[in-house]
Amino acid sequence: MHVNRKDGMSEDKEQTRLVDLALDVMEDELAAWKRFGTHQPKTTRIIRYGNPSPCPDPIGTEATSGETVQWLDVPDKDVNSILVRFAMDRVVAALRREFAI
User: Fold this and answer.
1) Is the dihedral of CA 5, 94, 82, 57 positive or negative?
2) Which residue(s) pair with 35 in the sheet?
3) How many whole angstroms separate alpha carbon 12 and alpha carbon 9?
4) What letter does residue 51 receive in the DSSP assignment?
């Protein structure tokens, strides 16, 4: 069914726009996290710098003043599920902002 909304945008186009937004936010968030090995067996350290850039700084570069750095040591088997949860949190926040407008 193809129904026009009050703002002239069809539901299909609106759904496509929201899906694209969600995928973009998820991809950006997943790309923001970097994985590193640790001295502990079967443990991975995941690190996220405050503002991810398309060209990440080389390893060992100091964070800029006031930049937030998050890191967690997690079991290897849980890394992907934790990163997806973090990304979905950002997706939900972005969609909530869209619906609030």
Assistant:
1) positive
2) 46
3) 8
4) S
Cα(58)–Cα(14) distance, integer angstroms: 39
The C-alpha atoms of residue 83 and residue 76 are separated, in whole angstroms, by 12
Helix residue ranges per DSSP H, the chain: 11-32, 79-100
How far is CA 17 from its chain centroid?
A: 18
**Nearest-angstrom CA–CA distance, 49 and 59:** 12
> 22-76, pLDDT tens digit by residue?
999 999 999 999 999 999 999 999 999 776 544 455 555 555 666 788 899 999 9
Cα distance between the two ends of the chain: 25
| Distances in whole angstroms, Cα of residue 96 to Cα of each of 14, 18, 59, 85 | 15, 11, 35, 16
